[in-house]
Design goal:
By secondary structure, this protein is of the alpha+beta class. The chain is 35% helix and 27% strand. The chain has a single domain, classed as Histidine kinase-like ATPase, C-terminal domain (Heat Shock Protein 90, 2-Layer Sandwich).
Length: 180
Amino acid sequence: MQGLLDQARRPLNRTEVAAGELVEGVCELARPSLAAAGIALRTVVAPGLPVLDVDAGQLEQVLLNLITNSLDAMPEGGDLLITAGSSGGYVEVTVADSGTGIDPVNVGRVFDPLFTTKERGKGTGLGLTIARDVVAAHGGTIAVSSRRDEGTEVKVRLPTARPASRAAATDRRWWPRRHA
């Protein structure tokens, strides 16, 4: 477990990434697993999202972790909505599911190391801790809201790249790595 935490705290390998392409790429990676589990994925990505100066691999892992948590919360299938938009110098990505939700007494604990709402052996309790640390290292925030038996919503806010960086990254394309 310490190895996972150390890996999340490694120095960032920042590159300029088109925010919309990052989100859409991760969604395409997850789509087959979600479909196999009977989960309908809908994405709403605002056109022309700003460029982010981020470690794309680490943010890919954050988003995949959020999607996996949603998948685990919907064992009988359900709906997953992933949105991306921008406001006030930030890109906001929201992952909202129609799953089991989190008991109100536990929502405040979801970022605590080793805390999990999953059955024994199904989770380490490190996924959201690592996600929080990665997002914070990028100067962003992550927040969870949930209602028992109604679903969970996770919002990730990341600062956009500086204006001088945006023009340089306009023609760059980022494609997610394939995971084994």
